[in-house]
Amino acid sequence: MNLSLVKTATDEHADRMLEREARWLRELEAVPQLEGQVPRLLKEGTAPGGRRYLVLSVAPGKGETRAFTADHARFLARLGKARFRAADFEVSGCCQGLHRALRNLEGEAEPATLVTLQGAYHDCETALLYWTGPYVLSQGDFAPWNIRILGGQLFVSEWGHARVEASPLDDVLHYLMIQRALSPRTVSMRELEAAMRSAAEFALKAYPEWTWRPQVIGALTLVYLLGAILRLADPRSSRYWTLVEKRSAWLPA
To answer: Of 1.10.10, 3.40.50, 1.20.120, 3.90.1200, which CATH number belongs to 70-249?
Structure first.
């Protein structure tokens, strides 16, 4: 039985998200290693009300799992190599995206908030100053509710947040951290450190040709936290804010 899903935008922002998703699905369809693991774009167009719509294939797999498994790691390793660039941090799209987001906050955020975020960004730059590493294609919302299990592989939906030249740890950290960030309580330092260990294990297996010192893992974790915070209208509302404020307690020296 062939299953499909119709997604229709409700406003201009959703129009842009569906346009991005369609663009990525067209590109990913040409990646043999991801065949059967991402939705196929069956049809796209404009509904009578003027809003964009997509028709996507749906997988009949099992529901989500909260654990980060070898199947998750295998999928992300394949995805990362679909659009891959080795670069110094300061010239990567990852770094430049954070810098632009910080510049956009100038004159809008409270001075104390801006100082904290700029200080964290400086810590990332300092720790990664002499490190060259892989920057990859990120799904952007790699979370259990966007993933179904198909035997020994995953079927991953929701590609409107995908981006290139992301940190290779972003999707792993997001998968592990977002489940805690959406709970009522604050994300603990112990939970963050457990996520960092899982991310380090992933990096060593997926990209063994690079050096993954604790300082690099810590800095790229801070990159993830900063990126998540900077995508919010109010950075201090993030569940990650305290972790960034108290980063000296968990960042490797």
So the answer is: 3.90.1200
